[in-house]
Design brief:
The complex is a heterodimer of chains A (about 170) and B (about 325). Chain A is of the alpha/beta class and about 170 residues long. Chain A is built from four helices and seven strands, in the order αβαβαβαββββ. Chain A has one domain: Rossmann fold. The longest helix of chain A has 13 residues. The radius of gyration of chain A is 15 Å and the shape is globular. Chain A starts with 5 loop residues before the first helix and ends in a 5-residue tail after the last strand. Chain B is of the alpha/beta class and about 325 residues long. Chain B folds into two domains: about 140 residues, Aspartate/ornithine carbamoyltransferase (Rossmann fold); about 150 residues, Aspartate/ornithine carbamoyltransferase (Rossmann fold). Helix content of chain B is about 35%, strand content about 15%. Chain B contains eleven helices and nine strands. In chain B, helix 6 links the parallel strand 5 and strand 6. The longest helix of chain B is centred in the C-terminal third of the chain and has 21 residues. The mean pLDDT of chain B is about 90. The chains are: A alpha/beta (about 170), B alpha/beta (about 325).
Chain lengths: ~170, ~325
């Protein structure tokens, strides 16, 4: 299937976010794709609050079935979460389970004032009552296929569709 | 021969000894531990990974630091922790080790953390429990203390970044030390090229060079130019017979003083697994000095034990 241009979607997402963020807004990317995206958006929006990144491996709801992810990276939230407007950023919004885990982790840093969600692509098929406030594009992807953000060697974004691996 | 710690797919089912574990398994544990360090600095110092799991701390031998850090680690993973003080429990009434384990398994244990004065005790339990139960060796006799070895290499990696090119000196009572054995296996697996053991002939096991270390009886010669000095506790409770003239005599030859430490590299770190005997194997001015990373070792031990428990529980 034809995939949209991730660079164009990223510009679109930045344009939409610009209206919703202030200097003190904290952007938090979910590793790996969401953190790349947050890095780019943070630069383009010129926010003074440093960006954060979450690795949600310790909060996944499939730990009992799938075990611990093999490459856990530290989460980094370099600002005070309490009372702050936070935008969680992920590359692809699908079942909503990752976002659930990210919100649980954020609350272990404090009590945010408001959490919003931005995604480059919303592929629907939610399994939890979660919605994104900022979306680059909506796209219908067959179940069982994995849609992810990727980066080439010059840092250019593109979308990659692959067969979902069985839980490893 | 199949490694009894590993599942069919090469993942870790139990942690019994570092000997024979592949490099990737060690690196995975260290990397995961690094992610847990951040958790302990947050407002809520817990993650929900082991929610609903029961961890039994089974200590047949006295321990403060290890038992406490295992307990903190399990609690930070949201597990329920049950500490068994074996000295006042069934084994003193004649119950066998495996009967104790069976009874605790009937109470829905998911993980056992075992310390025992007999080498192989954790191994025996691991061979006995149901397939969903995990066993961690927290020290068995003179054999192994894998989580101590892991926290030692975590500490070394934290301060020295990588192992190729490192010189590590392990000093003192190697003969009785499961800590030394676990650390030596970890260092050689990770590619540390120069591991030295230093001690009197009576406190070094015969054939220790077969583990890939060099042997020194003169501390000044052994410490020359090294990056890491690991002091071992003089284990008086394990000493049977006249291995040493006296503790004072030992300190004179093998105690770490500022003068002897000056022979190591200027940025050398000093480690000790605890509990320390000040004035026996280490001088107070070194233990509390700028080269000492003895207390950070304890803190890193929590994150390393969280990593081991969460990796095991997920496999």
């Amino acid at each position: 299937m034809d995939l949209p241009d991730a660079e164009a979607l990223c510009e679109e997402l930045a344009r939409k976010l610009r209206a919703g963020v202030t200097e003190s807004t904290g952007l938090v990317g979910i590793r790996t794709g969401g953190a790349w995206l947050a890095e780019r958006l943070h630069r383009e929006l010129k926010l003074s609050t440093p960006m954060g990144a979450l690795d949600i491996s310790f909060y996944r709801d499939d730990f009992d079935a799938a075990g611990l992810h093999h490459q856990v990276k530290p989460s980094q939230i370099p600002f005070d979460v309490n009372g702050r407007h936070i935008v969680v950023i992920d590359d692809v919004l699908y079942t909503g389970r990752t976002v659930r885990a990210a919100m649980n982790e954020l609350f272990d840093y404090g009590r945010p004032g408001k959490i919003e969600l931005a995604a480059l692509v919303d592929r629907g098929e939610r399994q939890l009552p979660i919605a994104a406030q900022y979306v680059g594009a909506t796209l219908s992807v067959p179940a069982g296929r994995l849609l992810r953000l990727a980066r080439d060697e010059r840092g250019k974004f593109f979308l990659r569709l692959s067969d979902a691996k069985p839980a490893a | 021969m199949r490694n009894p710690q590993l599942n069919g797919d090469g993942t870790l089912q139990h942690l019994l000894t570092i000997e024979g574990l592949p490099r990737e398994v060690l690196v995975h544990i260290l990397d995961t531990a690094a992610s847990f360090i951040g958790v302990t600095k947050r407002e809520v110092k817990k993650v929900p990974l082991l929610r609903g799991k029961s961890v039994f701390n089974l200590f047949f031998e006295a321990s403060t630091r290890t038992r406490t850090t295992f307990e903190i680690a399990a609690k930070r993973l949201s597990a329920d922790v049950i500490n068994l003080n074996i000295a006042v429990s069934s084994s003193t009434k004649g119950e066998t080790l495996l009967d104790t384990v069976d009874n605790l398994s009937a109470m829905y244990a998911d993980m056992f953390v075992v310390r025992h004065s007999s080498s192989g005790a954790a191994h025996l339990i691991a061979n006995h429990v149901a397939s969903h139960v995990h066993v961690i060796n927290a020290g068995d006799g003179r054999h192994a203390h894998p989580t101590q070895g892991l926290l030692d290499i975590y500490t070394i990696r934290h301060y020295k970044e990588d192992f190729p090119g490192l010189s590590v000196a392990i000093v003192g009572d190697v003969l009785h030390s499961r800590v030394a054995r676990s650390l030596i296996h970890a260092l050689t697996t990770l590619g540390a090229p120069d591991v030295r053991v230093i001690g009197p002939r009576t406190l070094l096991p015969t054939g220790v060079e077969q583990l890939g270390v060099s042997v020194h009886h003169d501390m000044r010669e052994g410490l020359a130019g090294c990056d890491v000095v690991v002091m071992l506790r003089l284990q008086s409770e394990r000493m049977k017979g006249p291995l040493l003239p006296s503790a004072q005599e030992f300190f004179k030859s093998y105690g770490l003083t500022p003068q002897k430490l000056a022979l190591a590299k200027p940025d050398a770190i000093v480690m000790h697994p605890g509990p320390m005997n000040r004035g026996v194997e280490i001088d107070s001015s070194v233990a509390d000095g700028p080269h000492s990373v003895i207390l950070p070792q304890v803190t890193f031990g929590i994150a390393v034990r969280m990593a081991v428990m969460s990796i095991l529980a997920g496999n």
